[in-house]
Structure formats: structure tokens, C-alpha cells
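Input record (one chain):
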Amino acid sequence: MKAKNIFFGLFCCFALFQWAHFNWSRNVSRHDIQRASEYHSGLQMRQFGIYPFRFFLIDKTLPPREVANELRLVQNPPDTCDNPDASPRCCFVGTPDSLTSEMKIAGKDEPGERLLIRGRVFKADGKTPYPNVLIYAYHTDSKGIYSKKGDETGIRRWHGRLYGWCRTDVEGWFSIRTIRPASYPDSRNAAHIHHVVQEPDGSEPYYINDTVFDDDPYVDKRYRANETKGGHSSGIVKLQRQADGVLKGQRFISLK
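The corresponding structure, as predicted from the sequence alone:
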């Protein structure tokens, strides 16, 4: 008899708790709470038990207004690529479905000297052409600034509006048409073009040596001495002015 009373008392407690939870959840749905809490990896409501004795342990009860705020974060999560040190994968967000081996970064109205870089990518042996390598590049404008249009998102908030993609052809060739970038204002940094590559095997993308220019006063002896350390291929490019006024250079890249 005593055991039956204990069981009946526990059953009543469970029923009372379920009734209270039902009334509370009329304002805030269990599903919404879970979505909001799981987003922060700190589950604020944990469900356990066996039907029909299902009940909930509430670690932290959120009022409706806070739940609404949490849901806004779930529906509009922070831009994880909005960081200068974001993963190189962020460089390929927005890549067009169809790419050629020619990258066009700067339009005809962009101030600055026209620049054409013709390049070729090889595998680690430095001899075998590497086709279908995805290349991303970005650089400063003619004043040395990563200038923006104003609607950039993600990593482009840091890289600016002068960027592009291309894919090496069957012989590993690619080209970049843009303007010659300038050094950062009031700095001793060589003017440069940043590059990120993604190999066709699906491995993680990575940065390679910047393209810099042989006639740049900041490409000094120390820079040249460090350029090929670690087995990297040199990014120092000699430029020649063509009859049409375009500066043209050539670069060969061996990927590790």
C-alpha cells in the first residue's frame, strides 16, 4: 500500500509538471527553444524520459523576448568569413560555376597601369603541368588601399573589390588582367598580389607566395633571400611594357 502511494505521488508530480510545461510552451515553443539553444552549443533545455512519462529539465528558462533574439541569430548567423584571418576556404565563397583560365580583376575604368600576368602551375616535381587548379587573387588599388564598393560581405570586407578567380587550363596556364597594385600607404611593404590555390583533389586551399615586382624598391636583398626558403617557387616577376602600354610579366608556380 505504501509503495502504491509513493508511485501515485510521483505520477501526480509528473502530471503536474507536464501541465505546467504545456502552459509555458504555449508562449515559447519547445522547438524554437531547442533551435536557439543548440546554436550556442550550450543546450538550455534537455529532454529525457520515456513516453508517457516524458519531462524536461530546464537549465535556463528564456522569456519570449530573449528567445526571439536567439532565433534571429539562428536565422541570421554571424558571418564566419568576416575576419582577416578567416579560413582560405572563405576566398572561394561566391566562385562562379563556370571559370576559364583568364582572371579579370580590374575593369577598364579602374585607375592605374594595366597589368597582365601570364602564369603556369606545375606539380611538386616542377615539371608536370597542373590542370584544373583553382586560383583566387586579390590586391590593393593604385593608392595601396583594399578599396571597397560598400556591399562586401565575408572575407571581401577585408580583401576589397579587386579580386577574381580562374582555373588553370590543360597545360597549367592561367592569366590575370588587372592594374598594378601599389604599396600600402606609409609602409615599406612591396606592392603585391595575394594568391590562394585549391588543388583539384579537394584538399584544403592554401596561400602561396605573393606576386611582387622585380623593379619594386622594397624587393631588396633580404626579400629576395627569403623568397624561396622552404622550397617555395619565387613570386618575383619582371615586367616589360608592351607596345600598347600594358605591363606584362610571367610567373611559374610549383605546388607542394
